[in-house]
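Fold it.
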Amino acid sequence: MTGKREVSPNLVVNKEIATVDKDLDLFGGWIGRLENPDPVLLSESRGRGIRLYDEIARDAHTAAVLQTRYLAVVGKEWSIQPAGDYVRRRGAVREVSQQDIEIARFVEDVLMSCNFDQLRLELLQAILYGYWGAEIIWKVRDGHIVIDQFLGKHPRRFCFTLEREPRLLTPDSRVSGEPLPDRKFLIFQYGDSDNPYGQGLGQKLWWPVWFKKHGIKFWVIFMEKFSMPTPVGKYPPQAAEQRGKLLEAIDAIRTETGIVIPDSMSIELMEASRQGDGSYRSACEYFDQQISKVVLGQTLTTEVASRGSYAASQIHEQVRQDIIEADADLLDAYLSRVLIPWIVDYNFPGVTSYPRLVTHAGKKPDLFARSQIDKTLVQEIGLPVAKSYFYETYGLPQPTEGEEVVSGGGQQD
């Protein structure tokens, strides 16, 4: 008895049923390609398409929080995990082979030798747009096919067919696009696996940014009108011919350091009440808070609140950390599923298990607190613990046989 159930192939539904061409919202009709169903683009782009979201990144606050989110992932260290090690960690029995280690080291060397971090930064812009592309420039080095560089491509360059296949829009094929060569382009999608255009944060950011932009416009008009007093010129009723000279003197007040007028004229400065400035400021601050919530999930890591608590700030920081780890996992999964197999297949034909990219996005552990727990478990409770645990936990190299070591109390053995 193997414990395995005999399953008829006819019972396994191994293909998609709810295909794109059956979706009432995504169906492309006679043009043979899908149109982006983003409701904001459909109503506001006026023919600009995905370029509309370029305006979002021009807002200073939005650009700052988006950059914070992108760089929080790109700034983390990454490594290539051998295939066998990944299988073992997931509970399977296959151990790491020498070939697994060699392949992982080769892939890591390839990615370290090109602008891989730039690729990660480019692809993460799918968070805003819904999808982002990159072209791979391959080269031959020492008999191996490796990557020379990655070139990011704006999403306006691509469209998708009814089969979700990406195509490159060119001057010769502006509607349906040209097919992409195999193993040449990366298209990272974010937010919606059913929609090939993804679902970026642009849908949620557009209106806060738009209202803030127009609020600032009226704020500037308000400041221009009320930031300086209005000059009022007075002249005698019988001296109407002096009116023109008085207006020239009033105009000169704006640019000259001093003016001269006859005794029969006078100029007074009339100041208006400026009570609306706070309303404009509050509106802009409100929209900034909404933008921070959409991008970072919270506000306390970007805004200085008048009231708050340390506990609240810790919760907000944890929310931000959760988003960082989720972004890293999504990007790692995509590159491990697409890019790394391409590198391996070019250079190690016949391999069926591939290494994986792992971004170390988690917080660095508090090693001092960990050491106190370990001390209690080992010395006070007497829990047996393997020595290898301490070397792995604290990142210490395990001494080789015959090597001089330092034992307890700083004594050398």
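The chain is about 40% helix and 15% strand.
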